[in-house]
Amino acid sequence: MIARLIPASSLVPGPATIVFSLQGRTIRSRVLMAQAEPHGVVRVAFASGDVIAFSARTMVGQLAPTPGSRLRRAR
């Protein structure tokens, strides 16, 4: 896995897991939809069912699979 910080404006749907924290809650999920809106807002829908509006400059963690690696699922 490759871990890095990216701005919310760079989010696109895909297999990478996005990690961010909101008031005592940490969300780890894939992006299903990312839409840039006026005034620097990015609205993002996650596979977890959460829909969050970020500032375009908000930094989020991205865990991307490396070529040839397989994501492990918790049992």
Summary tags:
six-stranded antiparallel beta sheet; mainly beta; 75 residues; SH3 type barrels
Instruction: Assign an overall shape.
Output: globular
Number of domains: 1
N/C terminus separation: 19 Å
Count of strand segments:
6
Structural class: mainly beta
Q: Which fold does the CATH topology refer to?
A: SH3 type barrels
* Rg, Å, rounded: 12 Å
Number of helices: 0
Main beta-sheet strand count, sense and barrel state: 6 strands, antiparallel
CATH class equals Mainly Beta
- Uncertain residue ranges: none
Strand order of the largest sheet: 1-6-2-3-4-5
Query: Beta-strand level of the residues, as a percent range?
Result: over 45%
Give the topology string: H per helix, E per strand: EEEEEE
Helix content: under 10%
Mean pLDDT across every amino acid position: 84
Q: Do you know the CATH architecture?
A: Roll
SSE topology:
Elements: E1 2-7, E2 17-22, E3 25-37, E4 41-46, E5 51-55, E6 59-64
Antiparallel strand pairs: 1-6, 2-3, 2-6, 3-4, 4-5
Would you kindly provide a written description of the structure presented here, covering whatever features stand out?
The protein is globular, with a radius of gyration of 12 Å. The protein has one domain: SH3 type barrels, CATH 2.30.30. It contains no helices and 6 strands. The protein starts with a strand and ends in an 11-residue tail after the last strand. 0% of the residues lie in helices and 56% in strands. The chain has a 6-stranded antiparallel sheet, with no helix packed on it. By secondary structure, it is mainly beta. The mean pLDDT is 84. β2 and β3 form a beta hairpin.
